[in-house]
Amino acid sequence: MKYVLVSGGVISGVGKGIIASSTGLLLKTMGLTVTSIKIDPYMNIDAGTMAPTEHGEVYVTDDGGEMDLDIGHYERYLLTTLTRDHNLTTGKIYQQVIERERRGDYLGKTVQVVPHLTNAIQDWIERVAQIPVDESGRKPDVCVIELGGTVGDIESAPFIHAMSQFPRRVGKGNFMQIHVSYVPVIPPGPHGEQKTKPTQRAVGDVRSAGLRPDLIACRCERPLEEAVIQKIANMCQVETKQVLSVHNVSSTYHVPLLLRQQKLRESIIGLLELDAPGAVAPSKAFVDHGAKMWQEWVQRTRAQDGGSLDTVSIALVGKYTNLEDAYISVGKSLEHAAMYCKKKLDLVWIDSSNLEEAAQQTQPAEYHKAWHALITANGILVPGGFGVRGTEGMIQAITWARTNKVPFLGVCLGMQMAVIEFARNVCKLPGAGSEELNPGCETPVIVYMPEVDRTKLGGTMRLGKRECVFQPNTAGWSKFRALYGDDVTSIHERHRHRYEVSPDQMAAIEAAGDFVFVGKDEKGERVEVIEIRSHPFFVGVQFHPEYLSRVLAPSKSYLGFFAAAAGMLDEVTASLTGKPPIVATNLDE
Q1: Could you give the CA distance from residue 183 to residue 247 in angstroms, rounded to a whole number?
Q2: 264 pLDDT exceeds 90?
Q3: How far, in Å, CA of 492 to CA of 478, rounded?
Q4: Long-range contacts (CB closer than 8 Å, 24 or more residues apart) made by 134-140
Q5: Which part of the chain is the Glutamine amidotransferase domain (predicted)?
Q6: What is the pLDDT of residues 77-128, one digit of tens each?
Q7: For every residue of 263-286, which 3-state class applies, written as one string?
Q8: Architecture of the domain spanning 310-447+464-578
């Protein structure tokens, strides 16, 4: 087993996740099976109880793990299926060590950070790195480990110490490190000077902690100047070929190609002795397919950047629009759909609170701006969320989409709001609402799931991949089901929710018009998909389809929605059942 550690210095949010994912992708182009582990040094057991505005989106895996958003990058780039154990936090590792101590596993010894905690970290990494991550069931050849945070942070110390010991455990030639740093430009602008001192200090911190970076990936506003590369190499005691320039590009999908051009693959081959006798022999499985398709995908993003494609505007009406990372998988899913349709995505962020009547009085400029963006959009998307704030604005947006025949997709909370909107305005159910938002409402059409533990928050929702069964009366007319083909009777998607459509109100809602519960759970009791039959595309899903959208395999929920907004739903639906292969080109070009 080979290991690649990706660490970061100078500032947080420097792009370690994208660089780690891109490194994994380049390894896959060699025919290797790649897995990834994300280390988060916060005390939380997982990301499930953190607000989206605090730490960005909570990403969910098949097994119901509530994960850091970087796990989403790994799955999207590497076409892998990771587990809850692929995200290691301080909370998880301390919990494991304390449980062992309580059982007496340490045989009376004084339990300490070194060696007990650091050994547990290394044991965890070795164990999880062996878990198969694709359909072949083959154990991975390489594990890319991203160490979250910034080297030097006090909470990272146990992990850094563990990783400094790890090369001795796994053996020479089986471990390498990429350290991601930041090269600021002072003053900002095209003529500012690229400053290397932060990188020098960051590399010094890494070395003082017991690690020695093999490659230094320098994030920068523009390509590093040759003199700057020479200076970093001299001051950090590395060769110039060990300094990588990772400058800003228009799309993160370009980063693997940027690293490929700087011969990252060749560097890894040498450092991990992949060309040595007995090393992993590359196959051509991914080389001949995925890598070439990735190049085609990048060409499409360049066409988008160049303005040669028609633009489709999507209004994202949400609660956490002040932090784009809160909806990062949603944005990526729309990008995947746009590239599939060969259109340019214009994603318009609308704070749902600004659509409410109260905003007209308190901040009229924001109110009118929000409504103008909404009514001029080609499609309206209401994503997931928690809490009452902004939900009346979501309902206003849904009413507009329904009555004006604008393509609509509601996800999780967005679907629930669509049910409430229809119950209020079409079914005329008095006081229709949600037990989450209005606990004392007269007619709760959204209710708390009976099996959910109400005494705590962490890990208590309906989580992970579940089956959605299409109802018999939907074949032949459902636009959503047609995306899969009428012969497909069920699909599997990932969930994260604790409220659902009330079983007691389902019959009354369906009786009032052409609002149909297209998909239900395997028992036929829980609503999974809703659709308005007479609408060009009005769909709500209880699951989160963004978690399974991949760069080379867009989510059909988002693809159908985007295609409807682009006026090409029939064309895309037809292409999904008999689409010819994408014309491939070489990743090396």
Answers
A1: 10
A2: yes
A3: 18
A4: 134/33, 134/79, 134/80, 134/81, 136/33, 138/33, 139/1, 139/33, 140/1, 140/33, 140/34, 140/35
A5: 324-551
A6: 888 899 999 999 999 999 999 999 999 999 989 999 999 999 999 999 999 9
A7: CHHHHHHHHCCCCCCCCCCCCCCC
A8: 3-Layer(aba) Sandwich (3.40)
Same fold, 2-288 and 310-447+464-578: yes
List of residues 6+ apart from 350 with CB closer than 8 A: 315, 316, 317, 318, 321, 370, 373, 374, 397
Band of pLDDT at residue 305, cut at 50, 70 and 90: low
Q: Which two tokens stand for residue 577?
A: 């059942």
Question: Is residue 426 over pLDDT 60?
Answer: yes
Q: Report d(CA 210, CA 116) in Å as an integer.
A: 18
- Is the CATH code 3.30.70.890 the one for domain 2-288? no
pLDDT at 581: 34
Nearest to residue 23, comparing CAs of 282, 207, 263, 247?
263
Q: Which residues pair with 88 in a beta bridge?
A: 39
Residues constituting the chain:
589
Looking at 32-89, list the stretches that DSSP marks H as alpha helix, in order from N- to C-terminal side.
52-55, 70-78
Choice among 27-31, 124-128, 408-412 with the minimum mean pLDDT: 27-31
Mean pLDDT of 500-521: 91
Alpha helices by DSSP H, 451-568 = 479-482, 506-511, 556-565
Burial letters 543-575, b for 16+ CB under 10 A, else e: bbbbbbbbbbebbbbbbbbbbbbbebbeebbee
Q: Do 36 and 74 contact (CB within 8 A), yes or no?
A: yes
- What rounded mean pLDDT belongs to the chain? 89
The region that residue 493 occupies, defined by phi over 0 for left and psi between -120 and 50 for alpha, beta otherwise, is beta
Across 495-514, average pLDDT: 91
Instruction: Give the mean model confidence (pLDDT) for residues 513-538.
Output: 93
In Å, how far from its chain's centre is CA 308? 28
The token pair that represents 58 in the structure block: 């909570």
pLDDT higher than threshold 80 for residue 465:
yes
> Annotated catalytic sites, by residue?
412, 544, 546
The three-state secondary structure class of 341 is helix
User: Rounded distance, CA 295 to CA 586, Å?
Assistant: 7
Cα dihedral 267, 273, 274, 276 sign = positive
Q: 311 is written with which tokens?
A: 């633009």
pTM above 0.70, yes or no: yes
Domain boundaries, the chain: 2-288, 310-447+464-578
Lowest mean pLDDT across 16-20, 90-94, 299-303, 439-443: 299-303
Q: Distance between CA atoms of 401 and 552, rounded to whole angstroms?
A: 30
Query: CA 432, CA 557: separation in Å to the nearest integer?
Result: 27
Query: Rounded to whole angstroms, what are the CA distances from 553 to 297, 333, 407, 549, 579?
Result: 11, 10, 22, 6, 12
Residue 171 Cα distances to 33, 140, 176, angstroms: 20, 17, 11
507: buried, middle or exposed (CB in 10 Å: 19+, 13-18, 0-12)?
Answer: exposed
